[in-house]
Write the structure tokens for this entry.
Amino acid sequence: MENSFLQTFQLIRSTTYQNVLTSAALTDHYHTDVDLLGIPLSFIVARSNIWSNCDCAVKATCIQSAAIYNITNNRVLYTVSGMYIGCYLIEATLQSTLECLYNKTCLDMITSHVTRSLAIDWIPLNSSQSQNLANETIQAILDQLMVQKWNWSINYDSYYTECQPYE
């Protein structure tokens, strides 16, 4: 099961990148329309050199730290610890960590800028209730199928009762 899930997930990632499927956030490519002698043409252009001098047309895993910006002057107000944005949102998410979700200050900062109209008091994750480290990547957690501990239970009596195999 583990191998099948991870292989399918990898296939989806590869298909997305190889077929140049555009992110809804337009972080990897952008559309441009050109009028060529009265003929309207539409192109998809790869965004280059926007993620720490990394080219999305060459590498799907280009990332930079996620941040909250001042909309008027484009200055960084707050860098979100452990979270990344990049060419493909799934690739950036896989390289991100849950660090901010364990930190009340970080959660409050995001909440104050994202959900101004909602009065939500987010409770940070409790590190004592998880074996996952705050700085462990989402990819590492996914590779474990988000299971912290497998409990094996083998019951031969139930097998023989249910299946009634011949000797």
About this structure: The helical segments are 2-18, 89-95, 104-114, 138-143, 156-163. The chain is about 30% helix and 20% strand.
